[in-house]
Design a protein that fits this description.
This protein starts with 14 loop residues before the first strand and ends with a strand. The protein has a three-stranded antiparallel beta sheet, with helices on one face. The chain has a three-stranded antiparallel beta sheet with strand order 4-5-6. By secondary structure, it is an alpha+beta fold. The protein has helices at residues 46-58, 63-71, 119-122, and strands at 15-22, 39-43, 80-86, 92-97, 108-115, 129-134. It contains three helices and six strands.
């Protein structure tokens, strides 16, 4: 369904997403959003899943990720898990920050979202809709 535009129609084939979860990727001093790779719409086959997991894991040592960690004082060495999830048909997706990322105000949630599966928000390809919520 993602290959056909991400909306209705398309195949009912089970698709997976392979995502990174690195230790210390989001701290008070640094946010590593978009630094590590995710692989979307992976066919439910061992060979395809193996390739996607290797791509995701190897992104931990991509030049941009290593350089960002070095500049942020996180050190070059890092630990990371790879998470495999069922791909869902999302109309919209985004990122929720549990405190305001610019002001560090803990009483504000900030949500960046757009139509689609959310990768365009994380990797900076679009200027997302932004919602600030006081809690």
């Amino acid at each position: 369904w993602l290959a056909s535009g991400g909306g209705g129609g398309g195949s009912d084939e089970l698709l997976l997403c392979v995502r990174s979860s690195a230790v210390g990727e989001d701290t008070a001093a640094a946010s590593c959003a978009g630094q590590l790779s995710s692989v979307l719409a992976v066919p439910h086959r061992v060979d395809a899943l193996e390739v996607a997991v290797r791509m995701c894991w190897s992104s931990l040592y991509a030049e941009r990720a290593v350089e960002y960690r070095r500049r942020s004082g996180l050190g070059v060495r890092a630990d990371m898990a790879v998470v495999v999830q069922r791909m869902v048909r999302g109309r919209a997706a985004g990122v929720c920050f549990t405190q305001h990322p610019a002001t560090r105000e803990r009483a504000q949630l900030v949500i960046n979202a757009n139509f689609g599966v959310g990768e365009t928000v994380v990797d900076g390809r679009v200027t997302p809709d932004e919602f600030t919520v006081r809690h």
